[in-house]
Amino acid sequence: MSTTILQSADESHVSKACQTYSITTTQFHALHSRSRDAKATAYCPYSQFRVGASILTEDGQYIDGANVENASYPVGTCAERVAFGKAVTDGHRKFSAIAVATDISPPASPCGMCRQFIREFCELSTPVFMFDKDGAFVVMKLEQLLPLSFGPEALPPLGELPSKA
Ligand SMILES: [Zn+2]
């Protein structure tokens, strides 16, 4: 498992990460800038902790999101789930990469709830790029962020629930 901090301004870091995770450098820089810019759309009057997310669909589209908080604190929603909600309700089901950006350093990772939410829609090999305030980043596969995960394929087919006997 790699938690090496890389630099988005270092093209050797970027090109190596892109080769490893099968995206183009153009897609990488788009994911970085879009997740960073999405922070500006956050509604976070309580934490003041802005998070932006951008998702790359398999057919090359980007869907962005940001965190949306609530006066009843636990009701607030993270940037990743906002972005995936938009993507899924727009009909997207296959994704190539995920990016999240915050105003802190080192890079922050998706919370546990978001890791599970992402797991519903992404292959375990899907890369998650995590950017800090200065563009440094860590990238890990979903499988590394959520080992031994539970996904839709674990459920029995509808109508075939095991008997209680
Ligand atoms: Zn989250």
Question: Which key terms come to mind for this protein?
Answer:
Cytidine Deaminase, domain 2, Cyt_deam_tetra, CMP_dCMP_dom, 165 residues, 6-stranded mixed β-sheet, EC 3.5.4.5, 6 strands, globular, binds zinc ion, single chain, alpha+beta, zinc
What do you see in this structure?
GO terms for molecular function: cytidine deaminase activity; zinc ion binding. With about 160 residues, the chain is an alpha+beta fold. It has a single domain (about 25-145), classed as 3-Layer(aba) Sandwich (Cytidine Deaminase, domain 2). Helix content is about 30%, strand content about 20%. It is built from 5 helices and 6 strands. It has helices spanning about 10-20, 25-40, 80-90, 110-120, 140-145; strands spanning about 5, 50-55, 60-65, 95-100, 125-130, 135-140. A 6-stranded mixed β-sheet has the order 1-6-5-4-2-3, with helices on both faces. Strand 2 (about 50-55) and strand 3 form a beta hairpin. Bound molecules: zinc ion (ZN).
